[in-house]
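Possible regression after last week's pipeline update?

I re-ran a chain I had predicted before the update to compare outputs. Posting the input and the new output here so someone can diff against the archived version. Not blocking, just want to make sure nothing changed silently.
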Amino acid sequence: MSTPTAAAPTTTTRPGLVLTVVCLCQLMVVLDITVVNVALPSIRDDLGFRPADLPWVVNAYTLTFGGLLLLGGRVADLFGQRTAAIAGLSVFGLTSLVGGLASEPGQLIAARALQGVSGALLLPVSLTVITTSFAEGPDRRRALGIWAAVMGVGGAAGVLLGGALTEWLDWRWVFFVNVPIALVAIPLALASIRNLHRGSPRLDLAGAVLVTGATTCLVYAVVRTDRHAWDSAHTLGLLGLALVLGALFLLVEARFAGEPLVRLGLLRQRSLAVASVLVFFIALGQFGAFYLASLYLQNVLHYSPLEAGLAFVPFSLGTVAGTVVGMRLVAARGPWLPVVLGLGLTAAGIGWFGAISPDGSFVADMLGPSMVASVGLGACLVANTSLGTTGVDPSEAGLASGILNAARQIGGSIGLAALVAVAGSVTRHHDGPPLAALNAGYARGFLVAGCLVAVATVVCLVAAPRDRAEGIT
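New output (post-update):
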Protein backbone atom coordinates (compact mmCIF):
# COMPACT_ATOMS: atom_id res chain seq x y z
CA MET A 1 0.00 0.00 0.00
CA SER A 2 1.34 3.42 -0.94
CA THR A 3 2.01 6.21 1.48
CA PRO A 4 1.72 9.92 0.84
CA THR A 5 4.56 11.74 -0.77
CA ALA A 6 6.45 14.41 1.06
CA ALA A 7 4.67 17.66 1.52
CA ALA A 8 5.14 20.11 -1.30
CA PRO A 9 5.85 23.77 -0.62
CA THR A 10 2.57 25.55 0.01
CA THR A 11 3.27 28.95 -1.47
CA THR A 12 1.96 30.65 -4.57
CA THR A 13 3.17 33.66 -6.50
CA ARG A 14 -0.35 34.71 -7.53
CA PRO A 15 -2.49 34.29 -4.43
CA GLY A 16 -5.17 36.74 -5.59
CA LEU A 17 -5.70 34.94 -8.90
CA VAL A 18 -5.70 31.52 -7.25
CA LEU A 19 -8.28 32.60 -4.70
CA THR A 20 -10.44 34.18 -7.42
CA VAL A 21 -10.46 30.93 -9.40
CA VAL A 22 -11.33 28.67 -6.46
CA CYS A 23 -14.09 31.02 -5.36
CA LEU A 24 -15.55 31.06 -8.87
CA CYS A 25 -15.49 27.25 -8.92
CA GLN A 26 -17.16 27.18 -5.51
CA LEU A 27 -19.72 29.80 -6.53
CA MET A 28 -20.78 27.96 -9.69
CA VAL A 29 -21.40 24.72 -7.83
CA VAL A 30 -23.13 26.19 -4.79
CA LEU A 31 -25.33 28.49 -6.85
CA ASP A 32 -26.39 25.64 -9.09
CA ILE A 33 -27.66 23.62 -6.14
CA THR A 34 -30.27 26.26 -5.23
CA VAL A 35 -30.74 28.57 -8.22
CA VAL A 36 -32.77 26.00 -10.18
CA ASN A 37 -35.36 25.34 -7.46
CA VAL A 38 -37.17 28.67 -7.86
CA ALA A 39 -37.37 28.18 -11.64
CA LEU A 40 -38.96 24.70 -11.52
CA PRO A 41 -42.58 25.85 -12.10
CA SER A 42 -41.52 27.83 -15.20
CA ILE A 43 -39.43 24.90 -16.47
CA ARG A 44 -42.42 22.59 -16.02
CA ASP A 45 -44.77 24.83 -17.98
CA ASP A 46 -42.35 25.63 -20.80
CA LEU A 47 -40.94 22.13 -21.48
CA GLY A 48 -44.08 20.17 -20.61
CA PHE A 49 -42.67 18.14 -17.74
CA ARG A 50 -45.01 15.60 -16.19
CA PRO A 51 -45.35 16.12 -12.41
CA ALA A 52 -43.59 12.81 -11.70
CA ASP A 53 -40.61 13.77 -13.90
CA LEU A 54 -40.03 17.36 -12.75
CA PRO A 55 -38.07 16.38 -9.58
CA TRP A 56 -35.44 14.81 -11.85
CA VAL A 57 -34.26 18.29 -12.83
CA VAL A 58 -32.88 18.33 -9.27
CA ASN A 59 -32.37 14.61 -8.70
CA ALA A 60 -30.24 14.01 -11.82
CA TYR A 61 -27.75 16.61 -10.57
CA THR A 62 -27.87 15.37 -6.97
CA LEU A 63 -27.23 11.75 -7.96
CA THR A 64 -24.11 12.29 -10.05
CA PHE A 65 -22.78 15.09 -7.84
CA GLY A 66 -23.18 13.17 -4.58
CA GLY A 67 -22.09 9.86 -6.07
CA LEU A 68 -18.82 11.14 -7.59
CA LEU A 69 -17.53 13.65 -5.01
CA LEU A 70 -15.03 11.26 -3.44
CA LEU A 71 -13.72 10.17 -6.83
CA GLY A 72 -13.63 13.80 -8.01
CA GLY A 73 -11.42 14.74 -5.08
CA ARG A 74 -8.96 11.96 -5.89
CA VAL A 75 -8.74 12.91 -9.57
CA ALA A 76 -7.09 16.21 -8.63
CA ASP A 77 -4.44 14.35 -6.61
CA LEU A 78 -3.69 11.90 -9.41
CA PHE A 79 -3.93 13.98 -12.57
CA GLY A 80 -3.17 17.49 -11.38
CA GLN A 81 -5.20 20.34 -9.93
CA ARG A 82 -5.04 22.59 -12.97
CA THR A 83 -6.10 19.72 -15.24
CA ALA A 84 -9.01 18.88 -12.96
CA ALA A 85 -10.10 22.51 -12.63
CA ILE A 86 -9.99 23.17 -16.40
CA ALA A 87 -11.90 19.96 -17.14
CA GLY A 88 -14.53 20.71 -14.52
CA LEU A 89 -15.02 24.33 -15.60
CA SER A 90 -15.22 23.41 -19.29
CA VAL A 91 -17.80 20.65 -18.80
CA PHE A 92 -19.82 22.73 -16.34
CA GLY A 93 -19.99 25.68 -18.71
CA LEU A 94 -20.84 23.51 -21.73
CA THR A 95 -23.56 21.54 -19.95
CA SER A 96 -25.04 24.76 -18.57
CA LEU A 97 -25.31 26.06 -22.13
CA VAL A 98 -26.94 22.80 -23.28
CA GLY A 99 -29.35 22.91 -20.32
CA GLY A 100 -30.37 26.46 -21.15
CA LEU A 101 -31.01 25.52 -24.78
CA ALA A 102 -32.98 22.35 -23.92
CA SER A 103 -36.22 21.94 -25.87
CA GLU A 104 -37.61 18.84 -24.16
CA PRO A 105 -37.37 17.25 -20.69
CA GLY A 106 -34.88 14.49 -21.55
CA GLN A 107 -32.30 16.98 -22.83
CA LEU A 108 -32.47 19.05 -19.66
CA ILE A 109 -32.25 16.01 -17.36
CA ALA A 110 -29.19 14.70 -19.25
CA ALA A 111 -27.52 18.12 -19.07
CA ARG A 112 -28.19 18.28 -15.32
CA ALA A 113 -26.63 14.84 -14.80
CA LEU A 114 -23.46 15.93 -16.60
CA GLN A 115 -23.45 19.17 -14.61
CA GLY A 116 -23.37 17.04 -11.48
CA VAL A 117 -20.33 15.14 -12.79
CA SER A 118 -18.40 18.36 -13.38
CA GLY A 119 -19.56 19.79 -10.05
CA ALA A 120 -18.19 16.70 -8.29
CA LEU A 121 -14.82 17.60 -9.77
CA LEU A 122 -14.95 21.36 -9.17
CA LEU A 123 -15.98 21.48 -5.53
CA PRO A 124 -13.21 19.25 -4.12
CA VAL A 125 -10.54 20.78 -6.35
CA SER A 126 -11.40 24.28 -5.12
CA LEU A 127 -10.56 23.31 -1.53
CA THR A 128 -7.57 21.23 -2.63
CA VAL A 129 -6.01 24.22 -4.39
CA ILE A 130 -6.32 26.30 -1.21
CA THR A 131 -4.66 23.70 1.01
CA THR A 132 -1.76 23.21 -1.42
CA SER A 133 -1.30 26.84 -2.54
CA PHE A 134 -1.44 28.74 0.75
CA ALA A 135 1.02 28.13 3.58
CA GLU A 136 -0.36 27.14 6.97
CA GLY A 137 -1.06 30.19 9.08
CA PRO A 138 -2.73 33.54 8.34
CA ASP A 139 -2.66 33.17 4.54
CA ARG A 140 -4.49 29.87 4.56
CA ARG A 141 -6.93 31.01 7.24
CA ARG A 142 -7.82 34.05 5.18
CA ALA A 143 -8.28 31.98 2.01
CA LEU A 144 -10.38 29.37 3.81
CA GLY A 145 -12.50 32.13 5.33
CA ILE A 146 -13.29 33.65 1.94
CA TRP A 147 -13.93 30.19 0.45
CA ALA A 148 -16.31 29.31 3.30
CA ALA A 149 -18.08 32.67 2.97
CA VAL A 150 -18.73 31.96 -0.71
CA MET A 151 -20.17 28.57 0.28
CA GLY A 152 -22.50 30.11 2.86
CA VAL A 153 -23.53 33.12 0.79
CA GLY A 154 -23.88 31.17 -2.45
CA GLY A 155 -26.67 28.97 -1.15
CA ALA A 156 -28.79 31.93 -0.07
CA ALA A 157 -27.82 34.03 -3.09
CA GLY A 158 -28.94 31.22 -5.40
CA VAL A 159 -32.53 31.67 -4.25
CA LEU A 160 -32.35 35.42 -4.91
CA LEU A 161 -30.63 35.01 -8.28
CA GLY A 162 -33.02 32.27 -9.38
CA GLY A 163 -36.02 34.42 -8.52
CA ALA A 164 -34.63 37.50 -10.25
CA LEU A 165 -33.59 35.69 -13.45
CA THR A 166 -36.87 33.79 -13.69
CA GLU A 167 -39.02 36.85 -13.04
CA TRP A 168 -37.11 39.41 -15.11
CA LEU A 169 -35.64 37.30 -17.93
CA ASP A 170 -36.42 33.62 -18.43
CA TRP A 171 -35.79 30.32 -16.61
CA ARG A 172 -33.09 29.48 -19.16
CA TRP A 173 -30.86 32.15 -17.63
CA VAL A 174 -30.46 30.16 -14.43
CA PHE A 175 -28.26 27.92 -16.63
CA PHE A 176 -26.82 30.53 -19.01
CA VAL A 177 -25.41 32.52 -16.08
CA ASN A 178 -22.76 29.82 -15.56
CA VAL A 179 -21.30 30.24 -19.06
CA PRO A 180 -19.62 33.65 -18.59
CA ILE A 181 -18.35 32.57 -15.16
CA ALA A 182 -16.66 29.55 -16.75
CA LEU A 183 -15.24 31.68 -19.59
CA VAL A 184 -13.64 34.02 -17.06
CA ALA A 185 -12.40 31.28 -14.73
CA ILE A 186 -10.73 29.02 -17.32
CA PRO A 187 -7.95 31.42 -18.43
CA LEU A 188 -7.41 32.49 -14.82
CA ALA A 189 -6.98 28.84 -13.84
CA LEU A 190 -4.49 28.28 -16.65
CA ALA A 191 -2.47 31.28 -15.47
CA SER A 192 -2.46 30.67 -11.73
CA ILE A 193 -3.09 27.05 -10.61
CA ARG A 194 -0.12 24.72 -10.37
CA ASN A 195 -0.59 21.25 -11.79
CA LEU A 196 0.53 19.37 -8.68
CA HIS A 197 0.01 15.60 -8.86
CA ARG A 198 1.67 12.37 -7.80
CA GLY A 199 3.63 11.84 -10.98
CA SER A 200 2.38 8.53 -12.41
CA PRO A 201 -1.42 8.54 -12.22
CA ARG A 202 -2.91 5.13 -11.40
CA LEU A 203 -6.59 5.08 -10.62
CA ASP A 204 -7.92 2.37 -8.32
CA LEU A 205 -10.69 1.33 -10.71
CA ALA A 206 -12.28 -1.28 -8.43
CA GLY A 207 -12.36 1.14 -5.51
CA ALA A 208 -13.73 3.93 -7.71
CA VAL A 209 -16.57 1.72 -9.00
CA LEU A 210 -17.47 0.44 -5.53
CA VAL A 211 -17.46 3.80 -3.73
CA THR A 212 -19.34 5.50 -6.56
CA GLY A 213 -21.91 2.70 -6.58
CA ALA A 214 -22.30 2.87 -2.79
CA THR A 215 -22.78 6.63 -2.63
CA THR A 216 -25.05 6.68 -5.70
CA CYS A 217 -27.30 3.96 -4.24
CA LEU A 218 -27.44 5.85 -0.95
CA VAL A 219 -28.31 9.19 -2.54
CA TYR A 220 -30.80 7.59 -4.95
CA ALA A 221 -32.58 5.79 -2.12
CA VAL A 222 -32.90 9.07 -0.24
CA VAL A 223 -34.05 11.30 -3.11
CA ARG A 224 -36.72 8.75 -4.13
CA THR A 225 -38.36 8.78 -0.72
CA ASP A 226 -40.71 11.27 -2.38
CA ARG A 227 -42.22 8.21 -4.11
CA HIS A 228 -41.23 5.30 -1.84
CA ALA A 229 -41.62 5.27 1.94
CA TRP A 230 -38.55 5.03 4.15
CA ASP A 231 -39.60 1.51 5.25
CA SER A 232 -40.49 0.31 1.74
CA ALA A 233 -38.70 -2.60 0.06
CA HIS A 234 -37.37 -0.15 -2.58
CA THR A 235 -35.72 2.17 -0.07
CA LEU A 236 -34.48 -0.51 2.31
CA GLY A 237 -33.14 -2.59 -0.60
CA LEU A 238 -31.13 0.32 -1.99
CA LEU A 239 -29.81 1.25 1.44
CA GLY A 240 -28.79 -2.37 1.98
CA LEU A 241 -27.03 -2.45 -1.40
CA ALA A 242 -25.22 0.78 -0.51
CA LEU A 243 -24.06 -0.82 2.73
CA VAL A 244 -22.79 -3.95 0.97
CA LEU A 245 -20.93 -1.94 -1.68
CA GLY A 246 -19.44 0.27 1.02
CA ALA A 247 -18.19 -2.77 2.95
CA LEU A 248 -16.65 -4.23 -0.22
CA PHE A 249 -14.99 -0.89 -0.92
CA LEU A 250 -13.36 -0.88 2.52
CA LEU A 251 -12.19 -4.48 2.02
CA VAL A 252 -10.66 -3.70 -1.38
CA GLU A 253 -8.91 -0.59 -0.08
CA ALA A 254 -7.52 -2.38 2.97
CA ARG A 255 -6.45 -5.70 1.41
CA PHE A 256 -6.23 -5.66 -2.37
CA ALA A 257 -5.61 -2.20 -3.85
CA GLY A 258 -1.98 -1.50 -4.67
CA GLU A 259 -2.73 2.22 -5.12
CA PRO A 260 -5.92 2.65 -3.06
CA LEU A 261 -8.41 5.35 -3.96
CA VAL A 262 -8.72 6.08 -0.23
CA ARG A 263 -5.80 5.42 2.10
CA LEU A 264 -7.78 4.21 5.11
CA GLY A 265 -5.13 5.54 7.46
CA LEU A 266 -6.26 9.04 6.49
CA LEU A 267 -9.69 8.30 7.97
CA ARG A 268 -8.00 7.66 11.34
CA GLN A 269 -6.79 11.25 11.43
CA ARG A 270 -8.89 12.64 14.26
CA SER A 271 -9.37 16.17 12.98
CA LEU A 272 -10.55 15.03 9.52
CA ALA A 273 -12.83 12.32 10.95
CA VAL A 274 -14.50 14.68 13.42
CA ALA A 275 -14.84 17.49 10.86
CA SER A 276 -16.52 15.08 8.43
CA VAL A 277 -19.05 13.97 11.06
CA LEU A 278 -19.74 17.58 12.00
CA VAL A 279 -20.30 18.77 8.43
CA PHE A 280 -22.60 15.76 7.88
CA PHE A 281 -24.85 16.84 10.77
CA ILE A 282 -24.67 20.52 9.82
CA ALA A 283 -25.88 19.63 6.32
CA LEU A 284 -28.60 17.37 7.75
CA GLY A 285 -30.23 20.46 9.24
CA GLN A 286 -29.08 23.26 6.93
CA PHE A 287 -30.20 21.96 3.52
CA GLY A 288 -33.70 21.12 4.68
CA ALA A 289 -34.05 24.37 6.62
CA PHE A 290 -33.20 26.40 3.50
CA TYR A 291 -35.83 24.50 1.53
CA LEU A 292 -38.51 24.86 4.22
CA ALA A 293 -37.80 28.58 4.59
CA SER A 294 -38.32 29.08 0.85
CA LEU A 295 -41.61 27.15 1.00
CA TYR A 296 -42.83 29.09 4.04
CA LEU A 297 -42.12 32.43 2.38
CA GLN A 298 -43.91 31.49 -0.85
CA ASN A 299 -46.70 29.17 0.33
CA VAL A 300 -47.64 30.75 3.67
CA LEU A 301 -46.54 34.41 3.40
CA HIS A 302 -47.32 34.39 -0.37
CA TYR A 303 -44.05 35.99 -1.47
CA SER A 304 -43.13 36.03 -5.15
CA PRO A 305 -39.93 34.17 -6.16
CA LEU A 306 -38.03 37.47 -6.22
CA GLU A 307 -39.39 38.57 -2.83
CA ALA A 308 -38.46 35.20 -1.38
CA GLY A 309 -34.95 35.63 -2.73
CA LEU A 310 -34.64 39.10 -1.22
CA ALA A 311 -35.69 37.67 2.14
CA PHE A 312 -32.47 35.60 2.13
CA VAL A 313 -30.23 38.68 1.82
CA PRO A 314 -29.91 39.17 5.62
CA PHE A 315 -28.90 35.52 5.90
CA SER A 316 -26.13 36.09 3.34
CA LEU A 317 -24.85 39.15 5.19
CA GLY A 318 -24.95 37.31 8.50
CA THR A 319 -22.95 34.43 7.01
CA VAL A 320 -20.22 36.84 5.89
CA ALA A 321 -20.11 38.41 9.36
CA GLY A 322 -19.93 34.97 10.98
CA THR A 323 -17.09 33.95 8.68
CA VAL A 324 -15.06 37.02 9.68
CA VAL A 325 -15.64 36.33 13.37
CA GLY A 326 -14.82 32.65 12.87
CA MET A 327 -11.52 33.44 11.13
CA ARG A 328 -10.44 35.72 13.97
CA LEU A 329 -11.36 33.18 16.61
CA VAL A 330 -9.49 30.43 14.76
CA ALA A 331 -6.40 32.65 14.63
CA ALA A 332 -6.62 33.49 18.32
CA ARG A 333 -7.92 30.29 19.90
CA GLY A 334 -7.83 27.49 17.32
CA PRO A 335 -10.86 25.97 15.58
CA TRP A 336 -12.57 24.19 18.50
CA LEU A 337 -14.14 27.26 20.15
CA PRO A 338 -15.61 28.84 16.98
CA VAL A 339 -16.95 25.46 15.86
CA VAL A 340 -18.74 24.94 19.18
CA LEU A 341 -20.07 28.50 19.36
CA GLY A 342 -21.07 28.49 15.69
CA LEU A 343 -22.88 25.17 15.97
CA GLY A 344 -24.73 26.34 19.07
CA LEU A 345 -25.90 29.53 17.35
CA THR A 346 -26.87 27.65 14.18
CA ALA A 347 -28.92 25.10 16.14
CA ALA A 348 -30.62 27.86 18.14
CA GLY A 349 -31.40 29.95 15.05
CA ILE A 350 -32.81 27.06 13.01
CA GLY A 351 -34.84 25.89 15.99
CA TRP A 352 -36.16 29.44 16.43
CA PHE A 353 -37.65 29.21 12.94
CA GLY A 354 -40.01 26.68 14.50
CA ALA A 355 -41.96 29.59 16.02
CA ILE A 356 -43.31 30.69 12.61
CA SER A 357 -47.04 31.39 12.39
CA PRO A 358 -49.60 31.37 9.54
CA ASP A 359 -50.28 35.09 9.92
CA GLY A 360 -46.64 36.02 10.52
CA SER A 361 -44.29 38.36 8.68
CA PHE A 362 -40.67 38.45 7.63
CA VAL A 363 -39.63 40.82 10.43
CA ALA A 364 -41.54 38.97 13.15
CA ASP A 365 -40.86 35.37 12.09
CA MET A 366 -37.77 35.25 9.85
CA LEU A 367 -35.33 38.09 10.48
CA GLY A 368 -34.22 37.21 14.02
CA PRO A 369 -33.60 33.50 13.46
CA SER A 370 -31.99 34.27 10.08
CA MET A 371 -29.36 36.46 11.71
CA VAL A 372 -28.62 34.05 14.57
CA ALA A 373 -28.38 30.96 12.34
CA SER A 374 -26.36 32.70 9.60
CA VAL A 375 -23.71 34.12 11.95
CA GLY A 376 -23.34 30.73 13.57
CA LEU A 377 -23.17 28.92 10.24
CA GLY A 378 -20.49 31.24 8.88
CA ALA A 379 -18.35 30.79 11.99
CA CYS A 380 -18.62 27.01 12.20
CA LEU A 381 -18.12 26.38 8.46
CA VAL A 382 -14.81 28.20 8.25
CA ALA A 383 -13.56 26.76 11.54
CA ASN A 384 -14.65 23.22 10.68
CA THR A 385 -12.95 23.41 7.28
CA SER A 386 -9.78 24.54 9.04
CA LEU A 387 -10.12 21.62 11.45
CA GLY A 388 -10.66 19.06 8.68
CA THR A 389 -7.73 20.14 6.47
CA THR A 390 -5.16 20.38 9.27
CA GLY A 391 -2.10 18.22 8.81
CA VAL A 392 -3.27 16.63 5.54
CA ASP A 393 -0.39 15.88 3.19
CA PRO A 394 -0.62 17.85 -0.08
CA SER A 395 -0.65 14.59 -2.05
CA GLU A 396 -3.93 13.68 -0.31
CA ALA A 397 -5.50 17.14 -0.14
CA GLY A 398 -7.98 16.30 -2.89
CA LEU A 399 -9.05 13.13 -1.13
CA ALA A 400 -9.56 14.97 2.17
CA SER A 401 -11.56 17.63 0.36
CA GLY A 402 -13.64 14.95 -1.35
CA ILE A 403 -14.38 13.30 2.01
CA LEU A 404 -15.53 16.58 3.58
CA ASN A 405 -17.67 17.53 0.59
CA ALA A 406 -19.13 14.03 0.22
CA ALA A 407 -20.11 14.07 3.90
CA ARG A 408 -21.80 17.44 3.39
CA GLN A 409 -23.68 16.41 0.24
CA ILE A 410 -24.83 13.05 1.57
CA GLY A 411 -25.92 14.67 4.83
CA GLY A 412 -27.77 17.37 2.91
CA SER A 413 -29.57 14.85 0.69
CA ILE A 414 -30.66 12.73 3.66
CA GLY A 415 -31.65 15.77 5.72
CA LEU A 416 -33.68 17.36 2.95
CA ALA A 417 -35.64 14.17 2.27
CA ALA A 418 -36.18 13.47 5.97
CA LEU A 419 -37.32 17.00 6.85
CA VAL A 420 -39.67 17.16 3.86
CA ALA A 421 -41.14 13.85 5.03
CA VAL A 422 -41.54 15.17 8.59
CA ALA A 423 -43.19 18.38 7.40
CA GLY A 424 -45.49 16.50 5.04
CA SER A 425 -46.57 14.04 7.70
CA VAL A 426 -47.44 16.80 10.18
CA THR A 427 -49.36 18.72 7.51
CA ARG A 428 -51.36 15.65 6.45
CA HIS A 429 -52.38 14.84 10.02
CA HIS A 430 -53.20 18.43 11.02
CA ASP A 431 -56.91 19.06 11.52
CA GLY A 432 -56.80 22.83 11.02
CA PRO A 433 -57.23 24.93 7.86
CA PRO A 434 -54.81 24.28 4.96
CA LEU A 435 -52.60 27.29 5.68
CA ALA A 436 -52.28 26.38 9.34
CA ALA A 437 -51.52 22.78 8.38
CA LEU A 438 -48.72 23.89 6.04
CA ASN A 439 -47.30 26.17 8.71
CA ALA A 440 -47.39 23.40 11.33
CA GLY A 441 -45.47 21.06 9.03
CA TYR A 442 -42.78 23.63 8.26
CA ALA A 443 -42.46 24.54 11.94
CA ARG A 444 -41.94 20.91 12.96
CA GLY A 445 -39.35 20.49 10.21
CA PHE A 446 -37.41 23.51 11.52
CA LEU A 447 -37.43 22.11 15.06
CA VAL A 448 -36.09 18.75 13.88
CA ALA A 449 -33.42 20.52 11.79
CA GLY A 450 -32.31 22.51 14.84
CA CYS A 451 -32.04 19.29 16.86
CA LEU A 452 -29.86 17.70 14.18
CA VAL A 453 -27.40 20.59 14.31
CA ALA A 454 -27.50 20.38 18.11
CA VAL A 455 -26.27 16.78 17.78
CA ALA A 456 -23.24 18.14 15.93
CA THR A 457 -22.63 20.52 18.85
CA VAL A 458 -22.55 17.59 21.27
CA VAL A 459 -20.21 15.62 18.98
CA CYS A 460 -17.84 18.58 18.84
CA LEU A 461 -17.86 19.01 22.61
CA VAL A 462 -17.05 15.34 23.14
CA ALA A 463 -14.77 14.39 20.25
CA ALA A 464 -13.14 17.38 18.55
CA PRO A 465 -9.47 18.08 19.36
CA ARG A 466 -9.19 21.11 21.64
CA ASP A 467 -5.46 21.65 21.50
CA ARG A 468 -4.78 24.59 19.23
CA ALA A 469 -1.87 22.77 17.68
CA GLU A 470 -4.12 19.85 16.70
CA GLY A 471 -6.56 21.82 14.68
CA ILE A 472 -5.31 25.16 13.48
CA THR A 473 -4.12 25.87 9.96
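Follow-up from reviewer: compared with the archived run. The two ends are 28 Å apart (CA to CA). Marking as no regression found.
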